[in-house]
Amino acid sequence: MSEVSSPEFLDETAQKALLRLARETIEAFLNGRPLPRIEDYALPPEVVQRLKTERRGAFVTLKGGGALRGCIGRILDDLPLAEVVQRMAIAAATEDPRFPRVLPEELPLLEIEISVLTPPRRVKDLSEIQVGRHGLIVRRGWNSGLLLPQVPVEQGWNRDQFLAYTCLKAGLPPGAWRDPNTVIEAFEAQVFSEADFKDQA
Predict the structure, then answer these.
(1) I want to staple 92 with a disulfide (CB 3.0 to 4.6 A). Which of 70, 127, 138, 141 is the partner?
(2) Whole-number percent of the chain with pLDDT over 90
(3) pTM for the model
(4) Domain ranges within the chain, ordered by starting residue
(5) What distance in Å separates the CA atoms of residue 188 and residue 185, rounded to the nearest whole number?
């Protein structure tokens, strides 16, 4: 579980609420039931208010047996965080082109991870990029690609490798990050998963 500095930081109550919301949203969607509402959970009013009004980008990742099963997100911060998590949870389960659609009976076997993003900012000096802290977005022309901050840590990449693989994700040559016409942006993410709270269940 990673943390970013206040005011972006979500406390444990908000984290657990979003994880519950993601799981119950996928379960309801796959079974054709009405989607849950964050305001129906027994949460402090200030937590509900924050999750219903604060506009943030977020990714929802599904893992099965430690392997990726789906991951979809949005960078834009034009929707309330609770709504983003619900939309991305459904998308991760049903729209990731790399994987077949999640089946209802499969959901209990999956672990949900959420990455809540800070607004991206343009990188002016590559030395600003810290592996393990920053996620990257690479853009050139119509091409763009994003990798979350946990990816290079999981893969054991250094900064140059992180930049190269983000370029590949954008459909660009691995050395495109050296091109002055390539825009590089960095962001931070607060990453939390159901595994973080298993001992509290």
Answers:
(1) 70
(2) 88
(3) 0.84
(4) 12-118, 121-188
(5) 11
